[in-house]
Design a protein that fits this description.
mainly alpha, elongated
Length: about 80
């Protein structure tokens, strides 16, 4: 059994959704339903392992002695 859901979206987004759905042979409702299913599945599955590049960078800054004050000064110098 299905139930009706009303979404408020910009006209441009609705147009894009309809084009995407047509291109993939689905309705906008099916696309939204698939997305919600994907969201609930990813929340239920265990966390993904980090990518190799991310894994290789772990601990690189461990011995760094940068204080919050140093970082704040860096940002002030960069953006002011």
């Amino acid at each position: 059994m299905t139930t009706k859901l009303t979404l408020r979206l910009s006209p441009l987004l609705i147009k894009r959704a309809k084009v995407y759905a047509k291109k993939h042979g689905k309705s906008v409702s099916q696309i939204v339903g698939d997305y919600f299913s994907l969201l609930s599945q990813s929340a239920a599955t265990k966390r993904m392992a980090p990518l190799p590049l991310t894994q290789s960078l772990r601990g690189v800054l461990k011995e760094s002695h940068v204080s919050d004050k140093d970082y704040k000064k860096y940002l002030e110098d960069k953006y002011l």
